[in-house]
Amino acid sequence: MSNHTVPxxxxxxxxxxxxxxxxxxxxxxxxxxxxxxxxxxxAKILNSLNIDYAVLGPEETCNGDPAKxxxxxxxxxxxxxxxxxxxxxxxxxxxxxxxPHCFNTIKNEYPSLGGNYEVIHHSTFLQDLINQGKIKIKExxxxxxxxxTFHDSCYLGRANxxxxxxxxxxxxxxxxxxxxxxxxxxxxxCGGGGAQVFKDAEKGNKEVNQERTEExxxxxxxxxxxxxxxxxxxxxxxxxxxxxxxxxxxxxxAEILEKDMEK
Amino acid sequence: MxxxxxxxxxxxxxxxxxxxxxxxIRQAIMLGRPDDRSDRQGERFKQMTLVALGQQKMFKRWxxxxxxxxxxxxxxxxxxxLIEIVIDGVSGSHRFFRPILGGFYTxxxxxxxxxxxxxxxxxxxxxxxxxxxxxxRFVKDEMNGWPKLDGNIILYLEIALIVFIFTMNGADExxxxxxxxxxxxxxxxxxxxxxxxxxxFVGPAIFGxxxxxxxxxxxxxxxxxxxxxxxxxxxVYLPISKHFHILLAxxxxxxxxxxxxxxxxxxxxxQVTEEMKAILDPSYQPVENxxxxxxxxxxxxxxxxxxxxxxxxxxxxxxxxxSVCPANLTGKKLSPRKVVMDVRDRLEEIQxxxxxxxxxxxxxxxxxxxxxxxxxGHYLLGEHHITEEELRACTTCNAxxxxxxxxxxxxxxxxxxxxxxxxxxxxxxxxxxxxxxxVENNGAPWAMPAADRFKWAEEMGEE
Lengths: 263, 463
Hints:
Number of domains of chain B: 2
Distance between the termini of chain B: 95 Å
Number of strands of chain B: 2
Order of helices and strands of chain A: HEHHEHHEHEHEHEHEHEH
Shape of chain B: elongated
Number of domains of chain A: 2
Distance between the termini of chain A: 16 Å
Radius of gyration of chain B: 28 Å
Radius of gyration of chain A: 18 Å
CATH topology of the largest domain in chain A: Rossmann fold
Helix content of chain B: 55-70%
Strand order of the largest sheet of chain B: 1-2
Number of helices of chain B: 19
CATH architecture of the largest domain in chain A: 3-Layer(aba) Sandwich
Helix content of chain A: 40-55%
Strand content of chain A: 5-15%
Number of strands of chain A: 8
Strand order of the largest sheet of chain A: 2-1-3-4
Shape of chain A: globular
Largest interface: A-B, 75 and 68 residues
Oligomer: heterodimer
Largest sheet of chain B: 2 strands, antiparallel
């Protein structure tokens, strides 16, 4: 298999194969041009380590989170049931995803609708690979000693109590990890959750993403690390308004790791 | 003897009144939907021990937590003295426990006195935080009027309790010094000191100049009765106050799923699941559950779980939730504390106007209650309580839930109200309507063709 090929579930099924992991890409990972780069970075990591995985490809559809949080339970359950039927048909057991919203919904809300899987967020998955020594960090990497601040996605942190895994990934790079005052359980939302990213904010005196981007920039970090596509959308918007795109990079932990790992 | 009769009558009346008020609150909570929380008893008990008894979540902010702890521990230990007051009040004894406990009695009362001084300091600091420093979370819009007064009344009552207890012990000390103690087990005319940590000094310092021991006896009785009557006032006041949390915090944390279930998990609506199954498989016979809500989502308090209604009566209006809410911090109308307070306001309004729910869960006014007709139409969702604008601003980030010291789940109120708006009233921002259409037609929240979903892989070799 070429390092640039992404295995698809339907193809493997045709050959009678069931991969160990399903890589659930999510809508942002599939369509958002910025987040596609994260998807590719993560797929490259999977490929370089010969992980036995596949994606659903064109068969994947929205997990239903934005519909559910907005209050459209019908649409959510319709999406969920379609996805569960498909994944059960492929006998999916383990799912990895880079999106905390997909992660939360599939892990917590699919079981009562008949979808029981082991769902792993990519931060946890990458941390495990580093711990097992399967991912090695190269000498003199781009991020070594670089000041990085990590933003906790609400759906990873408070929603599912995953605070350390993404930080461990960054620590492995020997980066200079600096925290914002509001971090971990006290982390401030990017403003995008609860289907907010799909609509204009209500009237107020400031945008939430602006408040949070300013907080991140104030740490003096050169990289704002995220682990969620919605957070990334919100921060890209926030950093543009601050005219700091040149000074602060906004990257997903998978992109950062992919650049600094031995391949 | 007259004192004993008076005591039994006042004490009994206080408790009966409290019982009636508490049962009204119980009835209000029972207006909520059934929601089985009888699972995982062991974990729930542990959680209650840590969060309610141990105040674990209070200590995320250690300054208020410390002073709150003083008041809390003083309150708990003072119950021992209160039990003695009750025994003395009924039997006519004086310091009933003293001969029984001996030196330990001196220790216990001394401990209560030291804690009372700490609680006194805590109370003054809390009054300052509310009225002088005006800590932002105490002066938000929803705190105007009654909530602000309520917060202060409780603190004034606490000061009264402490002042009376020192009046009682202090005057008693001076009486004993002068050989006029009435305490059980002390021989007539014997003089000495109770050796209580604070009052042995404070008593003579304040009342030492009073020569007439009859006057001192009156002062001691004023302290004793004053303390007792303040306790009863407290008891009668509790059910109409946010201070009810001192009782409800325990069951509220016990029955809470916060900490037991991932906070990101929102329950799936079973009646929707049944309909969906019937759509996907026409031969499927939907199971109708009597406990299912009468509508999709929530419009009024009857559509919420009883647990959310208990949350509302447990809320102590501390505002930690609102102070961490991203929407509120950026000037939006949403305040999670107001959402919880609105649920309680609505329940109190329902009881005040004697509204009763009919089979559809709609409130109908009782005959002859003035204004009831109008209030019946005030639903929880709407301009009188929680508005659409507030609900729309929520990012479901769970910061409010995380911050609540008594494990209130604000999202269990916000999400059902959003569901009602979308599913029953088709009321939503235009962009959400577009997003729903996209998900339904393209399988993605954006207007992207499903066939392009795998295009990202085409550039795998290019970066």
